[in-house]
Amino acid sequence: MKVLFVCTGNTCRSALAEAIAVREAGARGMHDVIPTSAGTSAWDGAPASDGALLVGIERRLDVNGHRSRQLTREMVEESDLILAMGPHHLERIEVLGGAGKTHLIADFAERSNDGRAIVDPFGGGLDIYRSTTDELERIVGLAFDRIASEKPRNSGAV
Fold first, then answer.
1. Does the annotation count 59 as an active-site position?
2. Which of 7, 59, 69, 92 is labelled catalytic?
3. Which is the catalytic residue, given 67, 80, 116, 120?
4. SS (H, E, C) the chain
């Protein structure tokens, strides 16, 4: 199962969410879940932001080798589940064919329709990066709870 995390630049939120998801999948033995990430306005090949790198080190999240990727139709088509950080990301994903498998990450994780976005820490201090990472760790954990609960017993699909 391919899970794609999407934000704007793919240097903060979605990069951290991908790293958290890799850790979560490993800890849960969910080796068939393959987390990736992209951005709706990403500059291909950019590293994770300094704040994401520093908080990644603090939390033992591997974002050192991360390189941003611009969201493409092919990525959308290849993904089984797409989790967006904000409503404007949903719109772009749906234009690229992601309707039916795309959700706001907080809505998916919390089984709600609140439309709540994850705060973008880009350009902020370490406190905002830490706060956003706290939220992402909680939300990604809940998303994995839902993925595990909805996964057919003898299949890799949700």
1. no
2. 7
3. 120
4. CEEEEEECCCCCHHHHHHHHHHHHHHHHCCCCCEEEEEECCCCCCCECCHHHHHHHHHHCCCCCCCECCECCHHHHHHCCEEEECCHHHHHHHHHCCCCCCEEEHHHHHHCCCCCCCCCCCCCCCHHHHHHHHHHHHHHHHHHHHHHHHHCCCCCCCC
Structurally, the chain folds into a number of domains equal to 1
The answer to whether position 157 is within a domain reads no
Q: Is 7 a catalytic residue?
A: yes
Active-site pick, 12, 13, 92, 107: 13
User: Is residue 155, in this structure, part of any structural domain at all?
Assistant: no
Q: Does 109 fall in a domain?
A: yes
Is 12 noted as a catalytic residue in this protein? no
Q: pLDDT tens digits for 9-61?
A: 999 999 999 999 999 999 999 999 999 999 999 999 999 999 999 999 999 99
Structural domain boundaries enclosing 36: 2-150
Global pTM? 0.95
